[in-house]
User: What shape does this take?
Amino acid sequence: MALPDWARAHGPSLFSAAIRVQASDFDVTEELGFDFTGDGEHDYLFIEKTAANTEWLSRQLAQFAQVPARDIGYAGLKDRHAVTRQWFSVPRWNSPEWQQLEVDGVRVLDQQRHNRKLRRGAHKANRFHLVLRGELPRKDALDERLATIRAQGVPNYFGEQRFGRGGSNVALAGAWSQGRRLPRHKRSIAISAARSYLFNQILDARVRDQSWNRLVSGDVANLDGSGSVFRVNEVDEDLLRRCDELDVHPAGPLCGDGSSLEDVSEEQASWLQALRDARVKPGTRSFRLRVADLECSRDTDSLILEFALTRGAYATAVLREIADVHDESRRA
Assistant: This one.
């Protein structure tokens, strides 16, 4: 199914561009944000992979180390059509010799010891080096847009990849909400797609009424870069200042048990009911995304963007505020 054209906050796209013409056009480096103990039963491997899927690689590591695949840890799924560097944890039960690992497109860059398995979402941030190819906009227009993004951030939409090719994960959510029995991993995908779609719809309304980047009485506020949230009963001068400084952001619901929304379609109402019936734990997500260390350089027909985003954020949320981007890796 076609996804909605969720609203942009900073005006129309400046130009049309292609991304991932080659794998190196999308370069991501994970930052953990914690220190290693230096001992313990887990090897932590910092791995560079090209055109390789995170889950597939975790199975290769499990096979090499002769441990169950479920015992391999990683903080997040990284794009396949890209060059990515991320950490994996592997139990040391069989003392694997990692310098002997041979997997196409894979290099072990660093090895550490730690006393705990790496859990999903445990990383702090991701750093991006992206190449957009196309006929570039005027320098002054681009500089103005980038300055706005640095100062105001961007709407924190879930990216298209969350919803599957052609919206297939949204269709899966619909089937699940109507009672179709799904394998555990597909059920998890359906739940994530439903919650993400509902969040994007809520955020879209805030973008359209220009309140996505300011606190409103009754909001939940999110402390930048953390999972810490608090209720805003009254917006005072201190909160206004902190919001302007991108220290706190308005946040919206990730729907679950007990959640209710107004003005939803019949299909979305069925998702909500299914989330309640499944007792999915509700959560929150910031409406606004701070784009750290945003830098730009340009060549004749390409634009190079570098920036850092907190965990759980999508680079496409930044790109869509600059360009109408076509992902070449998704072309049939």
Remarks:
- The mean pLDDT is 96.
- The first helix runs from residue 54 to 65.
- The two ends are 16 Å apart (CA to CA).
